[in-house]
Amino acid sequence: MGVKVTFVQADGVEKTFDDVATGQSLMEVGRFNNVEGIMGDCGGSCACATCHVYVTPEWQAAVGPADDIEVATLDMVSDLFKSNSRLCCQIQLREELNGIRVVVAPSL
Amino acid sequence: MEAGQVEAAQKTGKCPMGHGSASLAGVSMTDPQVMAAPGPFYQALRKDSPVHYDAKLNMWLVSRYDDIVTVLRDPLTYSDKHGYAAQYASGFFEEFKQILERDGGGFFPDVIKDDPPAHTRVRRLMDKAFTAHRVATLEPQITALVNKLIDQLVAKAGDGQVVDGVNDFAIPLTIAVICEQLGFGQLSADKVKAWSQAVTAQIGRMQNREQMLANAAQICDLQNFIIAEMRAREAQPREDMVSDLVHAQTEDGKLEFGEAVSLVRAMIIAGNDTTASAIGNLIYVLATQPEVAKTLQESVDDDRLLNRFVEELLRIEPPVRALAKMTTKEVELGGQKLPEHAHVMVLYASGNDDETQFECPRNFDLNRTNLGKHVAFGVGVHRCIGASLSRMEIKVVAREVVRRLGDIKLAIPVDQITYAPTVAVRTIERLPITFTRRG
User: In chain B, N or C terminus with fewer CB closer than 10 Å?
Assistant: First the structure.
């Protein structure tokens, strides 16, 4: 069974996708569906910070924190960094994330 | 730029003068003085002619950051495939291709330079091999390799011989790393260097026919080596990247043999040449800019600062200075109308130096809040796949060199430093240095 995910683009437009397959990253969902601001240039390698999102407060606990390697990549865009920043290529979709809502960070 | 100037500028809150002005009249990117010190040329381009026709190259030079990103974010209008094909073995392509077909097992176009969607299919397969997390696990073995090479440098310098930061260190190091990854055992550094230069020359626009023939022979040798390694793994798979590629399945079937040859070739070349250039640039900067060496000294025990040091080095001295694209339709860029099939040269080095994006761009500044915005690795679908590996190699070198070597100085006058004759990369050819031993 798939999950529901919502991206809020930097321009305020909300894009919701129902019944998204688990086992892929949130970046892949955003990129495949042309969510503005989700580029995923490095293909999910945690190397480019072009899939930067802010996880909404109610989802932060379920999503969890960034690891050291992700934090290092986020540090390269420190002007856009917030305490709820994540690179969404590092968020693997699973059933507990059904309904997740993230705000897309402004482009680099 | 002198250290004193930088400090004075920082105190008054103003930038140093930058590169100084340059005139564009009658000047080409291929002119030797521009090749050696391109900063003023880039600055003049950005200011006076941001999409500039270089008559000698017959190419449009794109120099402003925003225009560079526009080009790189639109890979179907600004085609890598067509730009690369137009550039490749420029002037001698048919003869070059025949030589490879006759003596080198075939002519295998670079799949990494294909356009979407063909490119996407292969890229997705390759991304998995180079994630930041996988590369992080390589740090101990890369550190060991770096220290082994520093041991050799120290021994050689101890014997009173001149030490070459490029040929005795940067090149053998990056070759050793990529060989280990691919599963080749240890190849001779001279051989891989010759292969790399032969391949890079094909997009450098600066080879004559005699050089093309010599380079083609090198590329045949490289391909015959690769094909033999692949055939061996077809029969008997091993735990290495070449084996992975030989047996790889993409989402729509098997990777073709020619595609796999081109990928292994690309990894041997891209995996060492650009990173070696970056490490050569690092040593050059440490030897010539004491304030940067001091910054590194102060950052060496802090992983965050060290990561920032590497990123700022890549911004301020990007190894790849320019790559070619070709328009697939008429398009307007930066106020300039470009016809269909226009040859476009994207000046990454100028984008990184764009004062509208990076405040005081010639200042080496670890505290930039937009460090990751530089375009040294490119942008978009062709962004460097080996970025994490490259960063790791440069970081380990920066850390270990500063811990073990002190007072690095050039052993020749700075105006005797020469760069490889290609517009594509900025690669120091020879870097004689002296240093003291630390600890």
Answer: C
Interface of B with A (CB under 8 A): 123-124, 127, 130-133, 136, 303-304, 307-308, 311, 369-373, 377, 379-381, 383, 385, 387-388
Residues of B in contact with A108 (CB under 8 A): 370, 372-373
Ordered by where they begin, the domains of chain B are 81-345+383-437 (1.10.630.10)
The rounded distance, in Å, linking the Cα atoms of B167 and B189 is: 9
Set of chain A residues whose Cβ sits within 8 Å of the Cβ of B308: 75-76
Residue A1 above 80 pLDDT?
Answer: no
Q: Residues A72-104: pLDDT tens digits? A: 999 999 999 999 999 999 999 999 999 999 999
Residue showing tokens 């962004």: B383
Q: Which of B133, B370, B377 minimises the CB distance to A77?
A: B370
Tokens 């937009």 -> residue: B370
Distances (CA, A) of A104 to A52, A91, B240, B252, B262: 6, 14, 38, 31, 37
Instruction: Name the E strands within B67-197.
Output: 78-79, 163-164
Give the list of residues 6+ apart from residue B46 with CB closer than 8 angstroms, or none. B63, B64, B350, B353, B354, B355
B20 — pLDDT class (breaks 50, 70, 90): low
SS3 call for B270: helix
Q: What is the pLDDT of residue B204?
A: 81
Number of Cβ atoms within 10 Å of the Cβ of B115: 19
CB atoms within 10 A of CB B213: 14
Eight-class DSSP state of B163: E
In the predicted structure, residue B145 carries a pLDDT above the cut 80: yes
B57 CB contacts (<8 Å, ≥6 apart)? B28, B29, B30, B205, B343, B345, B423
Higher local confidence (pLDDT), B433 or B423: B433
Q: What is the ipTM of this complex?
A: 0.95
The structural domains of chain A, ordered by start, are: 3-104 (3.10.20.30)
A41, A43, A70 ranked by CB distance to B124: nearest: A43
In DSSP notation, B397-436 reads: HHHHHHHHEEEEEESS-GGG--B-S-SSB--BS--EEEEE
3-state secondary structure of B317: coil
